[in-house]
Amino acid sequence: MKLKKLSFLNCALLIVIALVSCNHNNNASDNSNDQFTSGSYHFIFDSSLSPILDQELYVYKSIFPDAKPIVSYQPENKILDQILNDKSRFAVMGSPLNAEEVKLLTNRSLPPKIGKIAIDAITLIVAKNSPDSLMLLSEVKNLLNNNTKSNKSLVFDSPNSSIINYLKKLSGVRQMEQKNVYALKDSKEVIKYVATHQNAIGFISYSWLTEPDADYAVAAQNIKVVGIKDENSKDAPQIYFKPNQSTLALKQYPLQRSVYVVDCTGRIGLGTGFAAFLQSERGQKIVLRSGLLPDSMPRREINIKNDL
Asked: By three-state DSSP, how is residue 251 classified?
């Protein structure tokens, strides 16, 4: 029995070594020596989601000081270009890869592991003194139509933004070619612009509004969030909803999207470690505090005292 057990262990060890060797060979072009919680690796993140991802990174690096991720924030179209051309293998995005993109990566021996980490709200903002505070979902779609007669300035964070991609899919518009569409440097600039232009409507992630940084906090105080009513809703066709965790959880706010981690590294490394952190209870608590909706709701601990 002992000889058989030893033989089994030897075989198991050989299998593990073979798997590790195969994994190393499949990722030879990666030339990375990062580990689960240490080393350096290139992460590419959706720039429209930078507030929540900055918070996640701050806590992650404080827990694992040997982790040295190199982070680049880019609009979604540039992220897709880098992933599909194997310039980056780890990303966090505001939309999932489609079937064609997954197939392309799989055929290149880079099958992506995709996990949902949060639910975000595409938020419409206007100046505090603007008369616009409520809109129908159909009106939002019409604003994006190239034949629209609206004179409102539509302001986005980037021409390659995930927010623009989301709204194009929502409205069935292939290209936004109207003269009243503007793309600025980032969502921070959108907030600043809208705060001082009564005729503008800005489109941003809700994550920019919960804890504004000092450099745009004043501007954030001079904007307001537009309530949206989906007149085709089966549950609440007469009610306008603003984004918050409750309206996201109940699917009442109509302009919501999921946030995904995309790991094409094909091995256990810093990307895998950060993805695991994002989906852990600690990472999900950070999502909860940010105002977005966690993919899995963290447990709440209640201390009961016997003494009054």
From this structure: coil
